[in-house]
Amino acid sequence: MNNLDRLKKRASWLRVATLCVVVALPVLIGAALTLNMPMTALPQPVSPDVTRGQVMSAQALGLVSVAALIWTLLRMRQLFGAYAAGDVLSEANALTIQRIGQGMLAVAALGVVVRPVQSLILTLENASGQRAIAVSLSSADIGFLLAGGLLSVIGWAMHEAAQAADENRSFV
Amino acid sequence: MEIIVRLDVMLAKRKMKSRDLAEAVGITEQNISLLKSGKVKGIRFETLAKLCVVLDCQPGDLLEAMPT
Question: Cβ contacts (< 8 Å) between B40 and chain A: which residues?
């Protein structure tokens, strides 16, 4: 099996796997809502005095990151679909790779921005002096930032590769 | 200066069809057609050599430099 066949086969599997994750995420979130379970990790332990509305608002805010993640996963699925069809070096794929990088950067940035807002929502009803804004940067955020930056740069490099491939195709 | 491909002239001289030439050289008929119409950016030496062998000619019989 040559490299292209290997690529097409793996991309085919990854396309299916990505679709499974895209479908599973909203289903799991819906199940958590139905079963009244916490959907997303909240930035600090929730006190008994916090209202259900505050908790739901904070969790709904966390869904913004999930939406960005699903968007990124759909771009990945698009790329895997192109690879599975044997379309490897093209301008469209280069742009998709850049979009995936941008999506990962957005997921990381949203994670960093949303957590302080969540902590503010959860402590808003607290007495003066007991409200908090929790700012954090996790290893997952750093990982997404670096991976997103890497993919954005790779997208630009693939743009150059696509142009070279196009030039090559015009030679007989 | 532009390079004109005289493949159609050689095909007529050798009484050969594009399809047969494509098969003998190992490229697609579409590429032969693009080559004849000059809609390619270049030709590989390997392809040129095969064309010369099949058509029993020299590169100069296939390629001509014309002032633009």
Answer: 170-172
Element (H, E) at B3: strand B2-5
CA distance A88 to A84: 9
Nearest to B10 by CA among B67, B64, B66: B64
Rounded-to-integer distance, Cα A62 and Cα A132, Å? 18
CA-based nearest residue to A43, from A134, A113, A107, A123: A134
Q: Which 8-state DSSP code applies to residue B21?
A: H
Tell me what percent of chain B is helix, strand and coil, each rounded to the nearest 5. 55, 15, 30
Answer yes or no: is the ipTM higher than 0.90: no
3-state secondary structure of A120: helix
Best mutation target, A163, A166, A171, A172, to test chain B (most B CBs within 10 A): A172
The helix/strand/coil state of A50 is: coil
| Portion 16-55 of B in contact with A at CB < 8 A | 27, 31, 34-35, 40-44, 47
- Cα–Cα dist B31/B23, whole Å: 11
Q: Spell out which residues of chain B touch residue A170, defining contact as CB-CB under 8 Å.
A: 40-42
pTM, 2 dp: 0.78
Query: How far away is chain A from the Cα of B67, in angstroms, using its nearest Cα?
Result: 22
Residues A103-144 have pLDDT tens digits of 999 999 998 999 899 888 888 877 777 777 888 888 989 999
